[in-house]
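worker-3 :: picked Catalase
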Amino acid sequence: MTNNNLTTSWGAPVGDNQNSLTAGPRGPVLIQDVHLLEKLAHFNRERVPERVVHAKGAGAHGYFEVTNDLSKYTKAAFLNTVGKRTPMFARFSTVAGELGSSDTVRDPRGFALKFYTEEGNYDLVGNNTPIFFIRDAIKFPDFIHTQKRHPQTHLKSPNAVWDFWSLSPESLHQVSILMSDRGIPATLRHMHGFGSHTFKWVNAEGQAVWVKYHFKTEQGIKNLNTELAAKLAADNPDYHTEDLFNAIDQGDFPVWKLHVQIMPLADANTYRFDPFDVTKVWSQKDYPLIEVGRMVLDRNPDNYFAEVEQATFSPGSFVPGVEASPDKMLQGRLFAYGDAHRYRVGANHNALPINCPHAKVNNNQRDGLMRPDNNGGGSVYYEPNSYGGATESPKHQPVAFEVSGQADSVAYDEADHYSQAGDLYRLLSEDERTRLVQNIVGAMTPVDKDEIKLRQIGHFYKADPEYGQRIADGLGLYVPEL
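worker-3 :: tokens ->
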């Protein structure tokens, strides 16, 4: 029998390619997981020079204004004074397409925000959906490979897309959103944005809570049907880019209102599912939305390349009062995004004007390609030192948290991939359900293996029997025995 073991790049067999190595079931992820690090690092270097994901995008400058003081939850200075405005930059993007691809494809939209706060830059790098397809970063390179081009034909591969999704049932909720009307926003202005992950907020007393971000468009939700989206893709592939630029140019500034959900720390241990699982949403009945402020985009870039293309965002760019959670997908992104920027733009990407903090930068990083500033001049370049150089600030230490358990590759203990997808289906009107089923049937029809189709039909059926049956009927197949 042929040995077909998956191996690392140095030829060693891989024991677990589905779950990162963590300290106990909840983590955090361990840096000793060299397979994860190598996999993510190699993935970041697979395209030159455009972004591996989110290559096609549009951006704009604006400001964030606080409308509700939430200092009891976070000490982040830019959130603590009603009426305070913080300058910011936003970039919206498709996920899978190349730099020259169409804006109106069915795809999630990236929703990346950079806040130039007095305590340093804070980046919130999310999507226009509150969830994602997978929940462990070790699966991300494989997932994106399925969205890219086949290595032989150089064509998109429905076989790869649906094979991966059918073997990754945690994707079902996001797949249902993607194939719904919201899979193709009418414009970048007419969609919500989400931080997607769970984050930690810490107040001035060191008390912490878990938090999720929701940016609600004040323009209202509008979507494109499949036929119009296809026509626009042919007639004007830059439709969303053009719309955003023209709206701002004409003074029709798009606005989003930020709300958050707040969960007490202890609730994470008793909630009905793992709140760090990014394939799940928290019930707003359990954790209602709390208003924070408004994001207004009011200025177009002067130069696309200098500002939009060279903009770099990392979910690891935190400010005091905002910290990471044990979300495994987030933990992987904390490494992968910064690493991608160091490769794509350079080690000094944060010194470029679009990325440079408005706060004073005072560190010992020196040299590297394309250093655009004075490289620290003749200042002290190490720490600790006896010459008045930069020193650490213990009061800004992240809040300590307990970890326990054996170091192991452990899956999330929540296996219900179906309830929330089923709830979403049942919330849709009959017309919306019909379009959802039609979109899925159209996307799955080219798949050449009935085995893959049947496996995916089974997932839809588990979410809702009607959902699965209608897709089976549309494909001329049956619901497999479960």
